[in-house]
Please model this.
Amino acid sequence: MEGSDGKSCIELNHVTKSYGSVRALDDLTFRIPVGGKFALLGPNGAGKSTTLKLLIGSLRADSGYVGILGSAPESRESKAVVGYLPEDALPYRMLSVRENLEYIAALRGVTDVKGRTDYLLDELELRQYERSNVGRLSRGNTQKLAIALAIVHSPKVLLLDEPLNYLDIPTQEKVISMLDEMEGTHLVSTHIMAIANRLTDSVIMISKGMFLWEGTIEELRRKGSPEEPIEKVVARMMTGAF
Amino acid sequence: MAFYLHTRRFKVIFPLYVVLGLLFPILYATNVLQKPADVYSYTQGALGEFVFATVLLVTMLAGDAISQDFGRQGFFTLTQPVRRSEIMLARTLAAFAFAAVSILVWIGVGLATGYAFYGTAVANWGLILAFAMFLVAAVVSFTVLFSSLFKSPTVSVVICVLVVWFVMPIVSGILELVGVEPWFLVTYAGGVVTSLAQQTYPAHSTAINATGGGGGPTITVTVFSPYAWEAAVIMAGYLVVSLALAWLVYSRKELTEAS
Model:
């Protein structure tokens, strides 16, 4: 099924998803254009992770349409262009940092596997751990490796679930600058406005599995008074105080 | 393949099988134990626990082949542009390859030392190796099926071990008591390997009368030995049906949580 808008990169159309009797997504609809950098904002349990899992094809919608560049998320075409960072990522524990990168790079059809691996090891300061098994890494270094695995093939569509979790401030800045330099469409799931502000320029807000609001961060800022922290504006919107 | 090379299980199990395979030959060679009368008795003894050893090895190696994809690591496997059928096939073949190598070493030691001690080999050594590999393939498939049913690798290994180590032998024992052939059990089919090591292939069924102590009632236990063709059919059935069912489950299962 083709998305209704040919220029959409990510599209959800009247999507519903339940886990047993719990409805995680309720008639959720939004579109992200090609090249858009969007944050998916919402309180805990809003359905952000479920939305990302639908977009990577690990879950199937009960009803509605989900598409990545017009392809079904579970299709090979879609998976080839998507990079995904799960929340609390756990790469292959049995393999070393280098083996993880080279394995995923090979699966992704990266032409210069060694060169790309070396580049990411240096950029994310993982070089000293390249021979260490993932099971022995700190949480922060595991997160750095997971980020490297998500971007190893320079994906056209990047789906990130709480990407700055566990990272120290210098590494956060490094990751932000790396992501800034990357072209393509980004969707960053977070419940922290400061992260959305650094990594994206637009926001899709959801709550209880339903669409709440969409616009640029500037538009969001203008919804409050000039002195008011943007987090307060977001909190009011999420709790329906507007 | 790299997963199995890195697993603690393989690092422990493979040397253990080599040591166990060499233990009795060394004891015979150093005259600590008295050698059996002929190569058939020797080989039969060497392969006595073959089915148990195969099942132990395979459940340990393949028990989590698929279930690991439904934990957090699955987000790095199932999001790659690779078909699930290819992932399942690769995992099954890798488990088979590592189990087959371990079993081949173990049987190979038994056959080779038999030849070294007696200057001759059992007549059916080729069939023994072929059926051993067939059994490994059938048990790997059956184990992969269990692995596809459970999200937790530990649960899938434990349930599979319980079924193959305990449930199947108990069912087999009960059926022998009532004189019914356990034709649907892969562990029964695996008995073909030790049967082939005997000089004369055993009868398909042998009734044994046992009298209870103190003049109690006499009970009849029927011991069955599978025909070679029958064992092949049972193993093929496990191989095909288990893989088909595992594929059905694996291709439809959702990765619902980061467990």
User: Anything to note?
Assistant: Chain B has one domain: 2-165+227-252. The first helix of chain B runs from residue 2 to 6. The two ends of chain B are 24 Å apart (CA to CA).
